[in-house]
Amino acid sequence: MPITGEFQVRDGESLLSSGVITSSDDTLLETDQHTKKGSVLEGKPDTEVINVNEVYRELILRGYEYGPFFQGIRRASVDSRDTDIRWDGRWISYLDTVLQMCLLSRPGTHQSLPVLLESVIIDPRVHPAQPAEGTEEFETIPGSWDPVLDIVAAGGVEIRGSHTIRSSRRLTHNSPNVEEYTFAPYMDPSPSERSAPVVSKALMNYSDACFEFSRQGMKRWLAEDKDNLLPNKQEIVEALEMANKIASTPETASNYASAKATLEALVKSKNGHGLPNHGVFEMLDMTFSEPLQGDYWETLRKKLHVVRSYLWDDPIIAAMESPDIIKFVLETVADNVPQQVVEILEVGAARGSYYRQAIPKALDYLSVKDWRYTIADKFFVEDAVDYPVKILQFDPLDPANFPEAQNESCDLLVLKWTLHMEVDLDEAITGFSKMIKPGGFLLVEENVERLPTLFPIKAIVSASLGGHGGPEGDRSFGCFYTDAQWTAFFKRHGFEQVMHRHDGFSASLFLLRKPLVPITPPVIVNVDDLQCSWLEEVQARCAELRDSPKDARLWLVAKTELSGILGFFRSLTWEVGIDKLRCIQICDSSPGSKLPEITADSADFKELVRKDMAYNIYKNGKWGSYRGFVVPEAVRQKERESNFVYADWLSAGDISSLHWFNSPLKIGHHNGMLGSKLAQQLETETCYIYYAGLNLRDVMLANGTIQRDILPDETFFKEGVLGIEFSGRKSSGKRVMGLCPPPALASSVQCPVSSLWTVPDHWTLEEAATVPLAYATAYYCLVVVGGLQKGKTVFIHAGTSTVGQGPEWTQLYDLVQTGIQSGVVKPLKRAVFGMDKIVDAFKTVEAQKETAKVLVKIRDEEAQKLCQTPKTSFSAVHRTCFDPTKSYVLVGGMGGMGLETAHWMVLRGAKKILLTSRSGIRTGYQARKISFLRQLGVDIEVLAISLNNRKSADELLQHALKMGPVGGIFNIATALHDDNFSDFTRDVFVKALDSKVTTSLLLDEISREKPVRDTLDHFVMYSSIVASHGHMGQTNYAFGNSVLEKICERRKRDGLPATVPQWASIADVGIVAQMGNQVIITRKFPQRFFNVLNVFDYMMSSAAVVTTSYVLIERSMIAAGGEESMVDQVLKAVGKILGIKNVSTVDGDKEFIDMGVDSLMSVEIKQALERDVDLVISTKDIQLMTFNGLKSLIEGN
Ligand SMILES: NC(=O)c1ccc[n+]([C@@H]2O[C@H](COP(=O)([O-])OP(=O)(O)OC[C@H]3O[C@@H](n4cnc5c(N)ncnc54)[C@H](OP(=O)(O)O)[C@@H]3O)[C@@H](O)[C@H]2O)c1
């Protein structure tokens, strides 16, 4: 075979790379340049060099994760031209390092992959020798990058002409949760105060229809029950009477058949589909359908027992199971249980079954504590074996037989739908109470309204219902109490009611506390002072707590809104424990409202002492606490109405993720044209788009074949790159078609007047949209460049679509114009897609099957040739936009998150940014980032300033105003001064408050004054999850962040912009990453910065002032009886990816591929294994893996 030097590298069938390899006896590389050794950068000032950590931090941000062996760039100059490279004798990592130099030479935010190298020369003869065997020493070799010739070289390696493409790989990391962190009252607002019902309108309609069906069913039953076969007949009569009393229509207004038909129709309707399960309807239907004869009762009872699980997921039954409610309940319990593992016991679990859904779901979000869950019922609850719960079997209705071992065994006893079944409630509650530890909690859910709805089912399943009577009056139909009756009942049995929720239509949830009455007099310390004069006293009191009696309590009290007590207290409990600490904050701002009095003898304080709750925040006339309410992803991405939209993708390279986003036109400026050089040179006009043309460039951008970065920098804003031609109307109402910078796949566009043509009267706008690019391209290629003349023939290729700029443009414009007038230019064949079919439109162009021009229709064309475009509303995903004409101030903007935030703002339109810190540019990394942003055409200024008085704030303001009217103020500053609380001196403690409290107060002050208040759109203060969850050693940092949150809450109330993102630790930039600490705060993973950006838009637009973003460490409840082993946890995680609930039930020797694992799943499994157990397996091997094989691999790993 002749030696050609051609090579291919393949993985199975797929070609990985190909090329030509040659060898030479001659020296290939210039020796003097390539034989140099030693550092070229050592000793250079810090601001000119980026060090190894900064190099790889930048690369991590872009999605490259190099391990220690591959981190071969020791230093680089800010412009990447010079590098110090490590040579340790490992050729593979060395060659990779030289490739990394290519990547470093192209800064940005994305990951690029080298796809073509014009040449690689490796000349070992000029390369330093291998380090001596066994030595850990390494040699430093200078590397260089020549941007003109595009050559990178180091030692005996030289790469010429490296071409990269943007990777469309989605950066995968556990997706972040978002919570809105707001005040939540312990007690439900009264019905008249409820702002919105807990339940949706669809659910309310469904509940009403079930009620009516039940009423008509009972009526028919009673009429047909000649032989007295109905059990609990007297109660059914009562239930029907009550139903008639509370129904809004007379009983004769419908009948059984019509009520059933209404309910059936509702269940099948669109709204009904929104409610996935209709167990109440199905069970009522089953109950009423059984003919009233013979032993029907037994038969029906058995049938209902079998299908009882239908009820569990019915939204009427599950309304209280909303994670918001249950999470709040469980967090409240956790806040008040001193030990690390909280014991939950659910009694009557077969009926209530909180263990199935509600509690596990809520526990997923709960972080700080562990939970052990036990369930108990008369029957062995078989389906509970799939859940991580311990199962006990005893009759909860027979308190005499409670197992001894359950005495004072739980921190939380759960009774859902259980108490009302008791004949003797007094005896029952006494028995249940015994199971709860002193100071523990009882959670009761009961139906208190619309009782007749479910009553027929209840009447059938129980032979006889609970006893009438009791001191609170009759129990409705022998079993139910109202809200007020339950409250009185619990009080009589010594329980403190600490929380109450009503679902808005039928059920109530009571959280009760079994009291542990303190005798030792409480100590109260006021912690209002923002200068922290109370510090020493609190330290001394905390020290005393150690040896004080169990019932001693230290009450920290803040009576002002602007206090950091909440964060401070959370952090303090990490160090001192929760058992003896209590906090009170009065942050009520309602004018004239009577505030609680907190003194040792006041009735208000005594009530708090009785309830003994750890957190007592008084706001809006209610006691409560601050809580995070989870915002599901679907809600975060919910579209909102906007008059200005443009199309873009949610994930790069994924056409199916194309969506409409609100455009910057919304905030009064135009597309990316504004503020750009092009816009300054050209006269532009706003056009309302009716049809937008799609071209191959749009599809290639959307599917990742070409990258946004190759497009000219200054002609558009970076996040809207789709669409460059359209037809529509100018503001004057005149019909036009045109070519313009993207995004023209939009509802409006700012178009250069020089590329707008008037649409001839005999064309529709649909026809016109097919013309601009096609004819401009044709004229350009054939006439302008090709010099086409009469009689010549041409070959037309689909790829020719570049349109020239500059002087040629006028010629081209005229050619098209003349062509329109002469009739040569004619509308083309077209295929039109609606805005909701945008993905189909792209796929049609991508498939290249359609020869017609693909258009996206934005609006209907009016019949008139001249008319104004009416205001139209479109659905769009929210994206934050910044105004290029305004200035944005980022205090602390020189830090890790500050620089990345600035970069993101630039991508969203900001062009004038003022970054501040106390010391200005200190590192090469900062210099590099700023230089990169300047290259993007952004006016970035750096101001070294310490914001500690009004004078410095004014100086900052003047600087910003010189750049432009102030559009946004961000406080991203922080300086940590961590220590154990007991060791803090006041000086050190308050140092952490400078950047959080002093700075934020000053920024708040200047932003409330003219001229800033008239132009300010964003006031964003970065806080930390430490403020809501606390952390060891950070009482001062948490205090500062809490104050900052309060400042923003006050602003919001005053109608001013205010946003506080509460970040969990960030893994790749900023203070935590810099410390090299992967701090896991309260089971929250350090999150990657791209995750931050994924949720930032929501946080910026949320109605809540404070929103938290974090990545939760996956966990499940600890199965009673022992911790889950690491192997089990990993197998379970893999099972979850495969959609297997219980891995022990599948064949352990079956290969994953046979269980349906696809390539995406195998990548997910690969990542899980690498992340959790550091096990690296190729995706191919994963497909062939079995559970047994994996188990032994992990065990042996
Ligand atoms: N990184 C994380 O994991 C994380 C997690 C949760 C919350 N956060 C929050 O995110 C924000 C940014 O954190 P980061 O990680 O980017 O911190 P960083 O890298 O340390 O940057 C903080 C910046 O603030 C500046 N600064 C400190 N005190 C200042 C003051 N009094 N006035 C003006 N500038 C001051 C620092 O520069 P000088 O020292 O030169 O002044 C530095 O440039 C902070 O608010 C932090 O609380 C961060």
Automatic annotation (TrEMBL):
The keyword Phosphoprotein applies. It comes from the Eukaryota. SMART domains: PKS_ER (SM00829), PKS_KR (SM00822), PKS_PP (SM00823). GO terms for molecular function: fatty acid synthase activity; oxidoreductase activity; phosphopantetheine binding. Keywords: Fatty acid biosynthesis, Fatty acid metabolism, Lipid biosynthesis, Lipid metabolism, Multifunctional enzyme, NADP, Oxidoreductase, Phosphopantetheine, Phosphoprotein. Residues 1124-1197 form the Carrier domain. GO terms for biological process: fatty acid biosynthetic process. Pfam families: FAS_pseudo-KR, KR, PP-binding. PANTHER family: FATTY ACID SYNTHASE (PTHR43775). This is Fatty acid synthase-like. It comes from Elysia marginata. The lineage of its organism: Eukaryota, Metazoa, Spiralia, Lophotrochozoa, Mollusca.
